[in-house]
Amino acid sequence: MSDGDQALGFIYFLGCLVLILSALTVRRIPIAQGLKMFFSWVLIFLALFVAFTLKDDFLDLGKRVVAEARGEPIAVADGRTLRIRQSMDGHYWVPGSLNGEKVKFLVDSGATVTSISTATARRAGIDTSSGLIAVVQTANGTTRVKRGRAESLIVGPIERRNVAVHVSDGFGNTNVLGMNFLSSLSGWGVEGRWLVLKP
Asked: Kind and range of the H or E element at 24?
């Protein structure tokens, strides 16, 4: 909603309050009862004003809840471009695969390197025995990671080969698609509630 619409809505709200106050004054209602009625109407109009001001946000939230309840796709391929719908938790999750194994990724531009759990690395057959151990800073603090490489990382129609990954038990069950993948794209960015990845 534009600032102009909000200003008009606020003026309308004030006009309604003045009208109610005038009506109560003309009817000569006792002050205590009049104040009680006045504040009741203030709360009603305030609730209506907030609902009107945020109606687009409420509609969008409702659509997202219905979409998640129906199990609608969280990622949609548009030609070679991939569009990822924002999840209810505010993040962007996308199904993909590592070396042919299905993996659900959290897209995180704050992660330098794509990071996966030890269980995911085991399932995908990623060897970390010859990789050096490194210490990285994550949102949960410092974590020791092993380095490995995925022969194939596929997200929607986008595939990358020989991708560096960090592997650690410290990631729990979360697999993160990091900047080493995002920076290989021709473009990426947020459009409304969608994250758009261009190969």
From this structure: helix 3-26
Please state, as a whole number, how many other Cβ atoms lie within 10 Å of the Cβ of residue 117.
19
Query: Residue 93 forms beta bridges with which residues?
Result: 106
Q: Is the dihedral of CA 180, 184, 185, 188 positive or negative?
A: positive
User: End-to-end alpha-carbon separation of the chain, Å?
Assistant: 34
Contact (Cβ atoms closer than 8 angstroms) between residue 106 and residue 114: no
Which residue stretches of 27-157 are H helix?
A: 31-53, 55-70, 118-124
Rounded to an integer, the average pLDDT of 73-88 is: 82
Amino acid (one-letter) located at 183: S
pTM score: 0.63
What residue spans define the domains of the chain? 3-53, 74-198
The enclosing H or E element of 151 equals strand 141-155
Q: What percent of the chain has pLDDT over 70?
A: 76
The predicted structure's pLDDT at residue 6 = 65
Helix axis angle, 31-53 to 3-26, nearest 10°: 160
CATH 3.90.550.10 fits 74-198, yes or no: no
Distances, alpha carbon 58 to alpha carbons 13, 18, 49, in Å: 20, 29, 13
